[in-house]
Amino acid sequence: MKKELYFGIAIMAMILIGVAIAMPAPSEMTNGHLGLLMLSLVVVAIMLGFPTAFTLMGMGVIFTYFAYDGNIQHTLDLMVQSTYKVMTNDVLISVPLFVFMGYLVERANLIEKLFKSLHLAMARLPGALGVATLVTCAIFATATGIVGAVVTLMGLLAMPSMMKAGYDTKMAAGAITAGGCLGILIPPSVLLIVYGATAGVSVVQLYAGAFFPGLMLAGMYIAYIMIRAKINPKCAPPLSEEDRKVALTPVLASLRNTYGSSRAVSALVNGLKGRREGNLTGGQVANQLFIAMLPAIFAAFVLGLVYSSLTAPKQAEFDTSSLVSFGANYDSGTSNSYSFDLAEPEVEGTTGLAEPAGAETAKSAAPALEEPATAEAAVEEESRSAPLNFWISLLVVAAVLVYYYSRLSFERLEVFKMLLTSFFPLAILILAVLGSIVFGFATPSEAAAVGAFGGLLLAAGYRQLSFPVLRESAFLTSKTTAMVCWLFVGSSIFSAAFALLGGQELVETWVLSLGLTPIEFLLLSQVIIFLLGWPLEWTEIIVIFMPIFIPLLPYFDVDPLFFGLLVALNLQTAFLSPPVAMAAFYLKGVSPPGVTLNQIFLGMIPFMFIQIFAMFVLYVFPQIGMWLPGVLYR
Q: Which of 155, 177, 417, 469 is deepest in the core (most CB within 10 A)?
């Protein structure tokens, strides 16, 4: 029998023994104790391999039947109401659309080009292949959100390359598995959608809050690889000269042969106005020069937008505090109380309507309202100048561009072109989806629809869009969505039964009786979630245990948004901790024969400690996650 099976059986035995010891005698058991018994049985049943969704539904219906003293009608009513509540949840609409986008991007075969261009662009960094692997995983995980797909594809692509370059097997395995799990945290994440729907937290705010913690965690992974490669180059050797070679296109190769210059821009300018070898045309050279100048064009465009917004004429503000609505009489004795007199004005004889009271005052005050001399003067008076910080930023950007173009060789220009066809389309899709959500231009469901359409365009642009691809993507999307929706249905029924039995009240009473401080409660909850990540996956932890933790947050003055960010960081351990550690099994299935499961587990441990350190940093500096939602939405 395998060690992992022994470990799983031991955990289940510990749960059952703990329940037997903690439960009172059958004659003293209350409905709350039945709820805790139901919770324990659900965990054991899932660990035995029973389907999670149907286990939750089955346990919920059985124990609801006990709670209602055998009333089948009430039991079925609760089941139908719980199911209907899930099916009318608008947030879940975004799940199939994001999943569909992920499967289309996966099938566009972008990851191979992305990895190759990134590892060439980062060739001078310590641990270049490991850094390129993590960056590729982070970008691809953000676009797909499917951990298994990212780990599997990167295992096929990056693992042989790193092994060939002499990388330590454990470091290579850890980089691939940790990078593939970043899609759990970095938006658009399905986990955040599920947590938001379960906890009643805005998914938009969760996406904004998870942005910087996700970048922080990815940066910590990269820093670990670079520091370790610098200290011990044997575990992550630098790329050889042969691996750094870049094949030039005929246009660039011809220009380099003609001018023999290492500076690509000067050679392109000379080729545009001077002599050219072979059959090169001016249009071909101009096209290459335009590509080379794209960073400068983009920087000028962005700075122009910033400058126009900073110097736009300020709208005049009018003081309306002294204005009173026509016919409105304010009743000073009642707050915010107005009475409207719509009676006709009095008529004095036959001379017509009398002037209303106060007309003389208005006439005497009229000359004081003088128009400005000219429209130009008014605009000039309201115009604003750009602040000093803008000009400092402009100088910094200009200095960076001058340095970049002074060192831009033909090889680097070729790498930039590779990035232009692999990295930037994916980056534009991600920014369009996330930007429309974070800045309030679209709801998550609408942004997910845009992302799905963008995935179609990417697949078509890379000539991978076909009916078999569409059919397979739609089938896998339906399968994943059905799993998530059934999980929500089962979780809703289970949570309703747990609350009906009084299990939630019993848990709250017990936790409050401990007299915990907020930090002690956070430590206890995160340790429990960390330990649950060993035998359970994140979906089961979210749908089963979050409804237990969420009602306790107000007692300890913990923001559900901040708690969700900690949970999202913590739940990556569900993919990086044995014995479940699905990322390890995904990688083992596609690794070379010499790679063992133990090596993969050992490689994941340093990254697990980095996750714990990232949680500590987020707790000490909560503004890392709370600043952006606070600026945008509060």
A: 177
